[in-house]
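Aim 2 progress update. The chain analyzed this quarter is reproduced below.
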Amino acid sequence: MRAWLRKHFPRVDREVERIVYWAAFVVLLWPAMTWVASLIPALGLGEMIFAGLGATCLLSLTISATLAAWRYFSPIAPIGRTTFERASSVVQPQIPLIAAQPRSAMSEYDRERRKQEIDDLVQSIVAGNTLQSVNRARRFAWLLHSAIHTGGSMATLGNEIIETLNSLVEADNERLTIERQYPENPDISALIECKDWPEDRRTNPRDMALLRGLHSYVQQHRIGNVPDDALNNVPTWTFFRDTVRVTETKAWLQQYAEWCDHVQAALAEKRRELG
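Predicted structure tokens:
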């Protein structure tokens, strides 16, 4: 029943579940309290119903107060930051910026072309494919962190990875198409193509190897190990046990989003220098 609700009503979350649990508790307890009140001969039918309702409310409040007091005097021991938070807080390498050409050395034609390139790239970041890729990267990073997916199967998980990968590739192609129309601006080309990124290729925001490897890993676990419909009842994926792989992918997706924000800020500064 729970799997059916999650499949057809994906917005059902923990808060809704808590409300449903309490509602079911009240609905079951009210008739029981009404039956207890019926044992008192002096009460009529209406009095028995309202007496049962009052007893139900009083008992619910008593249970809630008892649980709240128990949690207050027996708090859960504090835990350290999660793996996702630690990965997100890693100091990322700074992208060195190449100084813009002196304004006086540029012709009006070159200045206008440079403005146009910057404007087109910023448009991609704030409203184009880059924006869509950033939103999808952040959503998939959170999906990996929560380890809960309402799709219900390993096949839908694989499709989610492919859609995220395709979104990032389309955004990269859009930025490269714009940048290569203006070869006279090598500083912007270096920024978009990550030419000065550190040697650790796994942290390069244009390197999709982690996502491709994650998809291959999920596909391998579908064959013979996990039935395609296994997640209908168990919404925790087997491959999440590979914490190293998942942590690296989450950190890379978060870094991609931060890199796009950095590129937007760098382009805005270059545009301001042009006037």
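The first helix runs from residue 2 to 8. Residues 2-73 form one domain. These observations will guide the mutagenesis experiments scheduled for the next reporting period.
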